[in-house]
Amino acid sequence: MQSLASYTPAFLKELYRKMVLIRRFEERAAELRSLGYIPGFLHPYIGQEAVAVGACAALGPHDYITSTHRGHGHILARGGDPRYMYAELFARRDGYNRAKGGSLHIANIELGIIGANGIVGGGIPIAVGAGLALKQARQIAVHHPDDPRARRADGVAVTFFGDGASNQGAFHESLNLAALWRLPVIFICENNLYGEFTPQHKHQTIRDIATRASSYAVPGLIADGNDVLDVYRVVSKAAEEARKGHGPTLVECKTYRHRGHYEGDMGQYRPAEEVAFWLEADPIKNYRRLLLAGAICTEEELQALDEAVEQELEEAVAFAKASPHPAPEEALEDVFVESYGGRALL
Amino acid sequence: MTATSRAEKERRLTYAQAIREALAEEMERDPSLLLLGEDIGEPGGVFGVTQGLLQRFGEERVLDTPISEEAVIGAALGAALLGVPTVAEIMFSDFATLAMDQIVNQAAKFRYMTGGRTSAPLVIRMVTGTAGATAAQHSQSLEAWFTATPGLKVVTASTPADAKGLLKSAIRDPDPVLFFEHKLLYNSRGAVPADDYCIPLGEGRVAREGSDVTLVAYLYMLPRALKAAEMLAREGISVEVWDPRTLVPFDRDGLRRSLEKTGRLVIAQEAPRRNGFCAEIAAIAAEEFFPLLKAPIKRVCGTNTPMPYAPELEQFVIPDEERIAAGVREVLYNAVRAAPGG
Predict the structure, then answer these.
(1) Cross-chain residue pair A133–B70, CB shorter than 8 Å
(2) Cβ partners under 8 Å of residue B142, min gap 6
(3) Chain B closest CA to A126's CA: distance in Å?
(4) Is residue A157 within 8 Å of A127, Cβ to Cβ?
């Protein structure tokens, strides 16, 4: 745990609020799914909130993220609106993706969210491309300062992925490419100890995925993924290097998912003592204690934050429930920008 | 028009030069356009298509990449999603297999999955077909894999003039476009206008007028179809050769107009017969233009085999002008069987 002295109370409280927002968003989503409101998959982020919140706290308005199948936490941390997220999960027209994507594909480029992704590792090369665009923005800023793309000249791209994805070729190809071109990309591996149902020791021979950075001559850092301030500190450092033009960093965040791989998976392949250990290391519970111990907040203030989150989510659920279903023929829209009078659809 | 510009208008370029000219013109036009690919920079590409572009536009814009197709296509897509148009080269379209997630799961579907709220102005140049004895992993014609994937536009340029005009349209298109270039066409020459012209996607072209049979052909089958038409003309058969130029979008009206004239349809294709795009064209004609047809449709295709190495085996596999001509005669006289595999 970190010293709190170097942070403002408002910043520290916002980290707490964001983590609670994610936790409660996910718990409610699971419940709403069991009630039949959500037709598709859910991969709950519960337990890993400190990673998304700590990392996104280090980002600015011109930064971009790519996310994963377990993406709700990243999207909320990056400023996603729970109303449009629930509407998307409910497959309603007001969803971020107008009911075409669902949980696995929520995106909003304006918010810097290039998307959750249904393919393990699929977002990593895309973040490298975002890094390429951001590097180009530095040139644009020099030669064409009035071009709107010049504004993102200090931007970085963050790609979140898991321990499982670190075995994909996409990860290795992308880290090599980003290192070679010194792109402003931060590779954040959330090592939650399981690739789907398979424990880490059965899917790779290393314990510290950060060591893979050495193959590409980039820094490999390890953060306590259940400590939001540690994640913030490490990712801030990586972002600072990237913004200076020093290229990518691989950040491994050690964490754990409290639930199964997806909603409905009971996760019985995990030893009870392991689960108990990590439940004790709950990032929200411990951070709450820290805020109280450091006299940043009172119990009443924290309760007020919790209640505000409940209120926000209550309204978000009501918004999603009221949102219309898409008309069936909307299935034919959005394949192309330019469909040549519909001929491109035929 | 001045005498000079008229002379320029009549100049003849190779297909490779025409592609290079399209790339250079579009890079001039949009200073943010990036090129990515293996060996496209200093070496100028395995087939020389990008020669001189690195020297002209610099290494910030002509990006030689590692041999990492998945990362390269993903990077091109990521940049495109942020509003930076990109042209990535797949040195041999066979290697697209290594980038299938980024092409099929990501690029093709990004706009749709996001409810129309994103756009990816990305072109993937797919170097396709045989180059002669290039065997099973450097010769495939995989266009039908991608026409079967909604969200991708698929262009097949068969002449230098079309290559320039279609590539410029593809680059300006806000959607992902796969641009198939045939290796054996790179050195073919043709008149290429010097001006800044685009050929819209979705408009086929009558490559030779005729009245007895419509012969559909694209990429390297086009010059072979034209040779077959020439041979058949000496037998008194008038063949209309029609090049769709783009497979997605496909110019149904163009096909219909030709069938209204001829009432007979032969389709030539280098790719294996099974599930090839020729099957789609045949199905369109059978479903929608059946009343226009006076004879059964004939496909003249590659065999359902991997591409062999030996020249005599390769020649057996890919339709030549003789086999295409035999297909036309079969449709006209319904008597002579086409050669094996045809």
Answers:
(1) no
(2) B93, B94, B96, B126, B128, B271
(3) 4
(4) yes
- The 8-class DSSP code of residue B7 comes to H
Residues of A in contact with B84 (CB under 8 A): 132-133, 136, 149
Read off the tokens for A236. Answer: 């801030």
| Cα separation, B19 vs B162, whole angstroms | 9
Domains of chain A: 9-345 (3.40.50.970)
CATH of B3-191, one of 3.40.30.10, 3.40.50.970, 3.20.20.70, 3.40.50.2000: 3.40.50.970
Q: Where in chain B is the domain with CATH 3.40.50.920?
A: 205-333
Over residues A91-118, the pLDDT tens digits come to 999 999 999 999 999 999 999 999 999 9
B80 touches chain A (CB under 8 A): yes
Closest residue, chain B, to A91 (C-alpha): B115
Among A217, A142, A222, residue whose Cα is nearest residue A188: A222
Q: Which of residues 307-326 of B touch A (CB under 8 A)?
A: none
Q: What is the pLDDT of residues B289-339, one digit of tens each?
A: 999 999 999 999 999 999 999 999 999 999 999 999 999 999 999 744 444
Residue B115 region by backbone torsions, left for phi larger than 0, else alpha for psi between -120 and 50, else beta: left
For A104, the 3-state DSSP assignment is helix
Q: Among 3.90.550.10, 3.40.50.920, 3.40.50.10730, 3.50.50.60, what is the CATH number of B205-333? A: 3.40.50.920
H or E stretch covering A24: helix A9-34
Cβ of residue B217 closer than 8 Å to a chain A Cβ:
no
- State how far residue A120 is from chain B, nearest Cα, in angstroms: 10
Known catalytic residue: B138? yes
Rg of the Cα atoms in chain A = 20
Tokens of A70: 């377990």
The two structure tokens encoding residue A13: 């409280």
In degrees and rounded to multiples of 5, residue A162 shows phi and psi of: -110, 180
A4-50, pLDDT tens digit by residue?
999 999 999 999 999 999 999 999 999 999 999 999 999 999 999 99
Q: Locate CATH 3.40.50.970 in chain B.
A: 3-191
**ipTM entry:** 0.97
| Closest-CA distance of chain B to residue A197, Å | 22
Do B200 and A340 count as a contact with CB atoms less than 8 A apart? yes
Contact: A105, B113; criterion CB under 8 Å? yes
Residues B300/B268, Cβ–Cβ less than 8 Å:
yes
Q: Is A114's CB within 8 Å of B81's CB? A: yes
Q: Does B106 touch chain A (CB under 8 A)?
A: yes
How many CA atoms within 13 Å lie on the side-chain side of A183?
33
Which of A336, A337, A345, A346 best tests the B interface by mutation, with the highest count of B CBs <10 A? A336
Long-range CB contact pairs, A135-142, < 8 A, 24+? A135/A181, A135/A182, A135/A183, A135/A184, A136/B32, A136/B34, A136/B60, A136/B79, A136/B84, A138/A245, A139/B60, A140/B32
Residue window 122-181, chain B: list those with CB within 8 Å of chain A: 150-151, 153, 173-175
Percent helix, strand and coil across chain A, each to the nearest 5: 50, 10, 40
Cβ contact, residue pair B202, A340, below 8 Å:
yes
Across the interface, of A176, A339, A343, the residue whose CB is closest to B66 is A176
Report the distance separating Cα A218 and Cα A238, nearest Å: 11
